[in-house]
Amino acid sequence: MTAALLGFGAVFLLALLRVPLAFAMGFVGFVALGLMRGWGPTAASAAQVVYDTGFAYTLSVVPLFILMGNFVAKAGLAHELFRAAYAFIGHVRGGLAHATVLACAGFGAICGSSIATAATMSKVAYPSMKKLGYSDYLSTGVIAAGGTLGIMIPPSTIMVIYGIVTETNIGKLFAAGVIPGLMTAAFLMAGVSWITWRDPQAGPAGERSTWPQRWAALRGIWGVLVLVIVVLGGIYGGVFTATEGAGIGAAGAFFFALARGALPPKVLLQVLVESARTTAMLFTILIAAMMFSNFINFTSMPGDLRDWITHMGLSPVMVVGAMMLIYVLLGTIMEELSMVLLTIPVFFPIVTALGFDPVWFGVLIVFVVQIGLISPPVGMNLFVLNALLDDVSLKQIFRGVWLFVLMLIGAMLLVLEWPQLALWLPGFMK
Amino acid sequence: MKRLLDALCGLLAGVALFAIMALTLVDVLGRKLLNHSITGSLELTEILMVVVIFAALPLVSLHGEHVVFDSLDHLMPPWLHRLQQAVVDLGCAAALGGLAWLMWEKAAQMASYGDTTAQLQLPMGPFVQLMAVLCGLTALVHLLLMLQPTSHHHIGVDDDVPAGGAT
Amino acid sequence: QTVLTLSSWVPPAHTLTTGQIEWCEMLAQKAAGKIKCNALPRAVTAAPGTFDAVRNGLADLSFTVHGYTPGRFVMPQMVEFPFMGDSAEVTSVAFQRMYAKYPAFAEEHKGVKVLAVFTHGPGIIFNTKKPITKADDVTGMKFRVGGGMVNEISKAMGMNVTLKPAPESYELLSTGVMDGTLFPAESVEGFKIDKVIKHATTFPGGLYNTSFVFMMNQAKYDSLPPDVKKIVDEMSGEFAARMLGRGWDKVDRRGMAFMQAAGVQFTKADAAFVGAVKTKTAGLEDTWIKAAEAKGLKNAKQVLADYRAEIAKLQK
Ligand code: NA
Ligand code: NA
């Protein structure tokens, strides 16, 4: 136990000293394992981890879902989603913010990443909100929070990674995210209503669209529908696996963007390279987290923690609740992917030993990642917005987002209390 | 120099990623329509994945896209920050250099065992060597960064393409 | 006290994990506590990296499938040919005897201390579509297979084969992406496909038997005190092969009962079907004989016949 805690401490210390997180985890994992098992075996193990993670067929979904999202963004589908949502709901107070949430949910159905969803929406929705005189705290808060729908509504890259490391069925995980995702969207819209009720100046109403305008806007989103039906329909209809679905989705998005003339060769290469770079960045974290958890595997921590929890005498749901609390707290200061990768080897066996469904736990994990992504001080979605929107300060973004953090926590607690919210839909799968 | 690296590694990684996408599409279509899947599509995907990841790795380092906690940066005088970055880059270069060496050794070991892929029987050694070379190249990039530091770049914040991560 | 670090890449309740732990406990008892095992909560590496992990000393004790590192092991492919045997205990012991008799086998395992080689039970064809009663029935059907000789056998039989990891079986079959898979009876329960598959075709002697090796880190073995080493030696070879094979037979029987309860329809391949498979896969033996001789096994054809004779003797 002491060894493991020292290891975690060393990772944090190095990260604070501005060592890239992946290098901090990899380095600590390597040195610690070397001290425990000898340098020869450790060196061989490091090479093996790099090899295993590189040549991993199932992990090919990661770059492919990223690529799909990037093609879709290039094709301008986000604009159309936003326009359609606005046509229906733009005239109410905070209408643009509501429309942002809906557009995020729609975009989330074809993009597997929260950061990409938030970044795309910031370009689509923020200028409109600015023009209508929305307060920055509301517009940035809702974009940051809405972006997190990208990982709850399938496809979802983080679900894929969870599915792979825990050997949980990815198709079921995807199905399990649908209802919690829609529920989260409703919670976020309730948050918008609350803010605009307290501060009507924050989000003035827009013009009411006519029904012909609405139908016209709706026709613009057929591309999204086609992609959703092809990818999810193909996976559940038995045409291809979830792993292959990512490739089909990327190809579909590619042809779609191509048909729209959005992909001259130079842009195509740029999209491909950007996606590859994101992939490489993620895989350095994956590889390093594997090295670190190889070290944890040799410590007594997993066993000690299990004993400790069983001796606490908590009810099983309370145990998971306590884990969620730890995650939410960790998520404020940690990068979420590494947080999940570092803790899953410790927490997951406890959860399954308590008899819980790994699919349900996976949905809860996505919730804590969503929360961590928008909870200050360290939240990637907030940083992304801060960097993309030159005239908004981080302070403004922090101010607007806390209510949405509470909304996400609320949605998570509902799923914690009623697992059926997550498990009902995958229950229909054979 | 930077531009050459960008062009070469970018082309390699980009083409490999496109190939994975095309391969999946053709494989699924072939299986559905012609009742025949591509021999070795799984192992080709794995090899192409390695190319995507490791050819893009030098670029991630070059553009400062690794996840870094830079929240404390403003608390530090510029000279100290500069020094800290140089030390970190030296450490990263050493780590990647070491890894490159380990992968090179592994490649030699696999070649001596005669390890191949399962269906196409392609020798594995050369691909592992490629991993080693690209790790080594990334180590050199970090040495270059000691002389010419780059500012940290939060991924997903590119001007044109919102390349979001897993989260 | 010496502590052996045990790493197992199959789930904790799998017969190969419990079998290894049982072996450890027996060892600890015989050595009066001078040695014990520490079973890690999780494997040190994925299955294909296990041989190297033991060789390099990351784990002291583990097992692996020869076919997971293609190109490395030629000799063990011999035991994966069709119709070798219905009992994993028998084929395991016979395999171990061949291993001890012909040094070319050990030659391929250099770098680790081999405790035993063994096989799993008879391989079965499972599918979700129709009863497979003759050789032509499989043409055009889509099957998932793992690595090793089963890959060659299924291709030779004219199946539309895709190589996919075993844990993906459930997804592939339940969504209809694939029509079937080749497994021993045990794996149906292990990979939770009992509710998905509808038909099973068994063969006398099995369509294939996957070969395994149970091994220890060489340096660790060398460092053992002489009395402990002697106990390890006694518990190696046939003793361990028999123990692991017997364990596999037990879970195969359980898997069979499980499938019968789930309503899986069984078909026994008749003489005509078996004959057709023999014809179609005859070329594989010739290919293996050439490859094995090129890698230093003298008179490989005779060794193969010897293996079959040994099985026949043991079955009596
Ligand atoms: Na999504
Ligand atoms: Na965070």
UniProtKB/TrEMBL annotation, chain A:
Topology term for the membrane: Multi-pass membrane protein
Annotated compartments: Cell inner membrane
GO cellular component term, pick one: plasma membrane
Residue ranges annotated for the TRAP C4-dicarboxylate transport system permease DctM subunit domain, each copy included: 8-420
InterPro entries: DctM, TRAP_DctM
Keyword set includes Zinc-finger: no
The keyword Membrane is assigned to this record: yes
Ranges annotated as spanning the membrane: 55-73, 137-162, 174-195, 216-239, 245-263, 275-296, 308-330, 337-356, 362-389, 401-421
Alphabetized GO MF terms: transmembrane transporter activity
Keywords: Cell inner membrane, Cell membrane, Membrane, Transmembrane, Transmembrane helix, Transport
Oligomeric form and interacting partners: The complex comprises the extracytoplasmic solute receptor protein and the two transmembrane proteins.
Protein family according to the UniProt entry: Belongs to the TRAP transporter large permease family.
Functional summary from the UniProt entry: Part of the tripartite ATP-independent periplasmic (TRAP) transport system.
The protein, known as: TRAP transporter large permease protein
TrEMBL record, chain B:
Any one annotated GO CC term: plasma membrane
InterPro entries, alphabetized: DctQ, TRAP_DctQ
Organism of this sequence: Pseudaquabacterium pictum
Transmembrane regions listed in the UniProt entry: 46-65, 86-104, 124-145
Protein name: TRAP transporter small permease protein
Biological process (GO), any one: C4-dicarboxylate transport
Residues covered by the Tripartite ATP-independent periplasmic transporters DctQ component domain: 20-147
Function, as annotated: Part of the tripartite ATP-independent periplasmic (TRAP) transport system.
Membrane topology: Multi-pass membrane protein
Compartments, as annotated in UniProt: Cell inner membrane
Family of this protein: Belongs to the TRAP transporter small permease family.
Primary localisation category: membrane
Record GO terms (molecular function): transmembrane transporter activity
PANTHER family for the chain: 2,3-DIKETO-L-GULONATE TRAP TRANSPORTER SMALL PERMEASE PROTEIN YIAM, TRAP TRANSPORTER SMALL PERMEASE PROTEIN
UniProt keyword annotation of Zinc present: no
Subunit structure: The complex comprises the extracytoplasmic solute receptor protein and the two transmembrane proteins.
UniProt keyword list: Cell inner membrane, Cell membrane, Membrane, Transmembrane, Transmembrane helix, Transport
Domain of life: Bacteria
